[in-house]
Amino acid sequence: MRRPTSDPFTRVSRVSDQPLIHARGLVKRFGDFTAVDGIDVDVMPGESFGFLGPNGAGKSSTMRMIGCVSPPTDGVLRILGRDPRRDGPAIRARLGVCPQLDNLDPELTVRENLTTYARFFGIPRRVARARAAELLEFVQLSERAASKVEPLSGGMKRRLTIARALVNEPELILLDEPTTGLDPQARHLVWERLFRLKQRGVTLVLTTHYMDEAEQLCDRLVVMDGGRIVAEGSPRALIERHSTREVVELRFNVESQDVFADKLDGVGERVEVLPDRVLLYVADGDEAVADVHRRALTPASVLVRRSSLEDVFLHLTGRTLVD
Fold first, then answer.
1. Strands (E), 168-316
2. Which residues contact 174 (CB under 8 A, 6 or more apart)?
3. Phi, psi of 209 (to 5 degrees)
4. What pLDDT, in 10s, does the model give residues 170-217?
5. Domain shared by 216 and 190, yes or no
6. Strand partners for 148
7. What CATH number has the domain bearing residue 255?
8. Final residue of a domain: which of 233, 254, 287?
9. How far apart are CA 177 and CA 187, in angstroms?
């Protein structure tokens, strides 16, 4: 893979033992609806932190408060040590934001989307041009610098949006569903770029409803459901705490899988029945499959896999992550 000739990100990381984000009892209401219901969060410098949950869990509302574009209804929130209610503009000047929907300017070239955005932060033209060149190299878009935005693929637009979020050398980068709508190849390229930022000590905060994305990128995360945090920890710690080592997925050729719940009782630690399959949470998948056959059951398909964050979420909330 082609490597950038320069590294514009060593300037981004700051050394501190104080959290860049500190929230206690954070609440966001819209009329009678409570989107965020009293959450506590700390994000440390250099950490890659995630908010995991389905649509409507409160992730984006939390990110908008952290991004100082939506005021908290109640609770304590400090971003970079400052109060967003009083110091919103000063905080935003030190943030990089990659919104859920790309909002690039289609009338400008790829390069101009960076240099024009840089002017909002008072960055001199000469510095902006040099920084744009560095960033386009980093996101592998140098060859498209003079192209308009409209013909770019979805993955290219996403990478350009990430590059734009880095123009002001932010201390904290917010990424709201960074790979939603991308094909698998584009998703993995975005992951690789974000992972390189993480390696350089850049502080990342992202929301996602993709379990594999959270496992790939997050040092630590919270699982949100209904506006509340239902679990917190590293991806591996959450899986070890709330699930088993392996999961057996069984599919039976019947309209409803529910009829097999009682027949599988006692196979492993627990049984979860979904509309299209039955999940067995077990320590040894092969032994569990043998037990299923000893019970004279013949599933149409069998899959043995390791536990994932989706299993954690299903256990904690009773439903899958992607609704």
1. 172-176, 204-208, 220-225, 228-233, 246-251, 270-273, 278-282, 301-306
2. 63, 66, 67, 95, 96, 97, 98, 165, 205, 206
3. -115, 10
4. 999 999 988 888 888 888 988 998 998 988 889 999 998 788 899 889
5. yes
6. 109
7. 3.30.70.980
8. 233
9. 11
DSSP sequence for 293-304: HHTT---SEEEE
CB-count exposure of residue 21 (10 Å: 0-12, 13-18, 19+):
buried
Q: What is the extent of the structural domain holding 128?
A: 21-233
AA identity, residue 157: K
Instruction: Clarify whether residues 214 and 298 are in a common domain.
Output: no
Q: Which of 223, 226, 234 is nearest to 310 (CA)?
A: 223
Cα separations in angstroms, 303 against 199, 213, 240: 34, 22, 20
- Whether residue 248 sits in one domain with residue 273: yes
- If asked whether residues 74 and 215 sit together in one domain, one would say yes
- What's at 229, amino acid-wise? I
Element (H, E) at 287: helix 285-294
Tell whether 314 is covered by a domain. no
Q: How far apart are CA 13 and CA 44, in angstroms?
A: 12
Read off the CATH number of the domain in which 198 is found.
Answer: 3.40.50.300
94/91 Cα distance (integer angstroms): 5
Burial pattern 124-152, b for ≥16 Cβ within 10 A else e, equals eeeebeebbbbbbbbbbbbebeeeebeeb
Instruction: Evaluate the CA torsion angle 310, 315, 321, 323 in order and state its sign.
Output: positive
User: What is the total count of domains within the chain?
Assistant: 2
Same domain, 192 and 280: no
Tokens 């994000």 identify what position? 43
What pLDDT, in 10s, does the model give residues 293-319? 999 999 999 999 999 988 998 888 776
Amino acid (1-letter code) at residue 199: Q
